[in-house]
UniProtKB/TrEMBL annotation:
SUPFAM superfamilies: SpoIIaa-like. InterPro entries: MlaB-like_STAS, STAS_dom, STAS_dom_sf. PROSITE patterns: STAS. Residues 10-102 form the STAS domain. The lineage of its organism: Bacteria, Bacillati, Actinomycetota, Actinomycetes, Propionibacteriales. This is STAS domain-containing protein. It holds the Pfam family STAS_2.
Amino acid sequence: MEIVIDGPTLVFSGDFDVRSTWMARSVIYDHLATVEGDVVLDFSEVDNADLTALKLLAVATRQARAEGRHLILQGCTPAVRRMLHLSRLYRVLDVERSPLIA
């Protein structure tokens, strides 16, 4: 897992799973503490995500909402979307809708 900071956006790449949750938690919460306004998590380069990682996002989303902000998931790959639906966490997380491909 690699996370690159691009302004208010965190760009994730690789596998987002139990092995990377500690690093991701640290980066997300540090970013929420330093950036004003909403934070975007770009998942367009994420190959896989597991339930532990998605639970981390749910808790971080709750924290952001408590502060009147949003944590927005952008560019979710089909594998990430599948896990969001299987876990039903798409109801809790702010997932940006991707345009339909013609």
